[in-house]
Amino acid sequence: MSHDSTAAPEAVARKLSGRRRKEIVAVLLFSGGPIFESSIPLSVFGIDRQDAGVPRYRLLVCGGEEGPLRTTGGLELTAPHGLEAISRAGTVVVPAWRSITSPPPEEALDALRRAHEEGARIVGLCTGAFVLAAAGLLDGRPATTHWMYAPTLAKRYPSVHVDPRELFVDDGDVLTSAGTAAGIDLCLHIVRTDHGNEAAGALARRLVVPPRRSGGQERYLDRSLPEEIGADPLAEVVAWALEHLHEQFDVETLAARAYMSRRTFDRRFRSLTGSAPLQWLITQRVLQAQRLLETSDYSVDEVAGRCGFRSPVALRGHFRRQLGSSPAAYRAAYRARRPQSERPTDHEPSPPPPPPPSLHPESPGPVPPQIRRTAAATAGAMGSSASLPSEHAREAYATSRASVPGQRSGM
Question: Tell me, what's the pLDDT at 408?
Answer without folding.
Answer: 42
